[in-house]
Design brief:
Structural class: alpha/beta
Strand content: 15-25%
Radius of gyration: 23 Å
Order of helices and strands: EHHEEEHEHEHEHHEEHHHHH
Bound molecules: S-adenosylmethionine
């Protein structure tokens, strides 16, 4: 996969890239990431990339021409599959979008800054606009990095365990099950017996039950949309009938956070 990131603050992206799984994916050639300094695509000797907004008001806005030239440069070897504007007003980026984009060959990310980007970039240059959440960042660099990280870890060979992404939260519409390690008891909370003494089937069914209960308790929005099977219904019903303790209710999470 080839990823081009267009930014006026290249160091913000470059310092984030060479670490952990992303860094290893770059080193092993699974992904090539090119960071373009938009100042290099300015037409004047001051390397101007921004300008005051038409109609007045404070702040500066990124100009469209350097972005257009940077996209043309990034497209010279292969046509991008998506040209993504990072944008708090864009479509909410989620795991489904990450899976979708992980199947593509070439992505371009445009990082906005200041008051934003000239609207003509959205209208005529970008193919998509994505937001990473309902809050406003100073610039699009952290947003691009978040999306790149979520996409690259899904590429074949990026993670040590090939099945890991299919077990993550959101992959099948549910949250992930809770994980435990040693010691057997920590602050009075024990590791569930099924994980210590259970066989493979018992572990799998305990984990599935936790996924179902957690999602139902914590994310009613996901719960309303997920496809649960007849086996899942049976699992929930028999756990309720046997009064299996339900950890991680919404109330407990709120308590843990406060
Ligand atoms: N005035 C703009 C608005 O209210 O919609 C916000 C501009 S913001 C300070 C500067 C840039 O940061 C944006 O152009 C965008 O590229 C990026 N950005 C800020 N918040 C973002 C978010 N939640 N998701 C993606 N990009 C974001």
């Amino acid at each position: 996969m080839l990823i081009d990131i267009l930014t006026v603050a290249p160091q913000m992206v470059e310092t984030a890239l060479p670490h952990s799984i992303l860094g290893r994916a770059i080193d092993s050639g699974i992904v090539r990431i090119q960071v373009h300094d938009l100042h290099d695509y300015a037409a004047d000797r001051h390397r101007t990339t921004d300008s005051p907004p038409c109609g007045g008001g404070g702040g500066m806005v990124l100009k469209p021409e350097p972005i257009e030239r940077a996209i043309a440069h990034a497209s010279r070897l292969s046509q991008p599959d998506r040209i993504i504007l990072t944008d708090p007003q864009g479509v909410r980026f989620d795991q489904e979008a990450a899976f979708e984009m992980a199947c593509l060959d070439h992505l371009v990310f445009i990082c906005g800054r200041y008051e934003g980007v000239d609207e003509r970039v959205r209208l005529t240059l970008a193919s998509h606009a994505y937001s990473i959440g309902d809050y406003v960042l100073t610039g699009g660099e952290p947003a691009a990095w978040v999306m790149v990280d979520a996409i690259v870890r899904l590429l074949p060979g990026a993670l040590g365990c090939a099945e890991a992404p299919s077990r993550d939260s959101f992959a099948d519409g549910l949250l992930d099950y809770p994980q435990f390690t040693r010691p057997r008891s920590f602050r009075g909370v024990g590791v569930p017996d099924a994980l210590l003494d259970g066989g493979h089937r018992e572990v799998e069914s305990w984990r599935r039950l936790q996924q179902l209960r957690r999602t139902r308790a914590l994310r009613p929005d996901l719960w309303a949309r997920c496809d649960i099977t007849a086996d899942d219904v049976h699992l929930l019903e028999s756990a309720a009938a046997h009064r299996c303790p339900q950890r991680y209710t919404e109330k407990e999470y709120a308590g843990a956070r406060s």
